[in-house]
Amino acid sequence: MALDHQTVREIAELAHLELDDSEIDQHADELSRILGFIEQMNQVDTTGVEPLAHPHDGRLRLRDDQVTESDQRASFQRIAPATEAGLYLVPRVIE
Known about the structure:
Strand content: under 5%
CATH topology of the domain at 5-42: Histone, subunit A
CATH class of the domain at 5-42: Mainly Alpha
Helix content: 40-55%
Radius of gyration: 28 Å
Order of helices and strands: HHHEE
Number of strands: 2
């Protein structure tokens, strides 16, 4: 399915995009290829294929919850610009 320049202009207007004439040719070609690919996918016979809720239908393999890094809180707090009672102090953003 080939898109003409007027259709691409209308799509660009709906998407609030400003396209000059040189860009319209490029986008017309790209959108036509995308629509052609969609038409090709629509021709595939999917009879008997049940839709999936998720592409990975099996259970996820979970790893054990183990600590892999040492506690560096004290060293991070030493180099922080401002701390109090173990918390980082940051400038107020909202008045």
